[in-house]
Design goal:
12 helices; binds nicotinamide-adenine-dinucleotide; binds 2'deoxy-thymidine-5'-diphospho-alpha-D-glucose
Length: 343
Amino acid sequence: MSTRILLTGGAGFIGSNFVRFVLRERPDCSIINLDSLTYSGNPESLSDLDGEPRYRFVHGNILDLELTTELIKECDVVVHMAAESHVDRSIIDARPFIESNVLGTQTLLDALRRADPDNTKRFVHVSTDEVFGDLPLDQLEVKFTEATPFAPSSPYSASKAGSDMIVRAYCHTFGINACTTNCSNNFGPYQFPEKVIPLFVTNLIEGKKVPLYGDGKNVRDWLHVEDHCEALLAVLEKGAAGETYCIGGNNERSNLELTHSILAAMGKDESSIEYVTDRLGHDRRYAIDATKIKRDLGWEPTRSAWPGALENTIKWYVENETWWHRVKSGEYLSYYEKQYGGR
Ligand code: NAD
Ligand code: DAU
């Protein structure tokens, strides 16, 4: 039997990769993509699917209870990844993060309860490892697990922790059929060039310097976006209701190490680095122990190994300048406004 997926936030980085991944890997699946097209939602990331009968785009907001209720009724499962996603923006203005990430998730869960009173439809809530706060740089054996208490540092991670807690509460109180995932930093094609890898790569293509925050010693665990998509499918299809799953690449790099790898791959040297004022409240280190998802669902990363996966990602930005140039120059925003009449 075919599975109809309602995906929220499918015009963003992970969402657009997820749409393509699922349509390729599951010929029996169809997807409705609900996205409000904020600055980071880009229909051009899915323009190759124009005319694809298994894919439909709906321009709308997860805060719209009537719309989301009707869309959930049309589908068998929900994968929820719509969110404000950038830490730096949350430091400048936390409000949209609370609106979309907290209230948006709560609205979607209420829509799920209205559309599916018997709790038959699987709901996958896509969250982040940032809900756990950060780890020390001098104890590399310590990693986040599903049992790590929440200790979010930024308004972004606090809003995601809020959304995770609401999902937990709806599982406990109403018995909804939900799983939550907490994933590390993703990289790959179609990532908005405010995040460090596409920002640094596109800056270097443009002949600019790369702004490295603080001392550059902060560590992130890098996972290729298609590995994340595969893990999400495993959770969707095999995850146990009410469970959470940590997803990581086992690929920890300091930002300085990451920067050197990018510089080397692009034939640049240290003179392209500009050390700038640190991010406020900057988390030192993230690292994931992904034992549970490997043991229970048989998933482990296969596409994230460096330097190959990083070099392929850099190559994608080099070859797809039209995609990122319009977004980065701001031209895309006015194009979007013309198309859809504002945010
Ligand atoms: P993104 O910013 O590229 O995409 C977010 C998408 O959500 C955009 O298309 C945007 O238009 C849409 N959106 C935002 N608010 C909305 C609303 N109220 N209604 C409908 N659509 C809305 O983000 P991303 O990097 O693709 O992240 C996707 C999800 O994965 C987020 O929930 C994020 O917290 C989580 N996550 C991201 C990473 C990462 O490294 N990028 C890692 C772990 C978890
Ligand atoms: O860990 C998962 C999270 O990863 C996701 O939940 C977030 O949605 C996603 O944005 C990402 O958060 P980070 O803050 O880790 O990603 P970002 O690319 O913004 O930054 C990565 C590291 O690089 C971080 O230590 C800050 C640093 N950095 C970032 C930028 C944008 C710089 O040094 N300079 C920069 O200009």
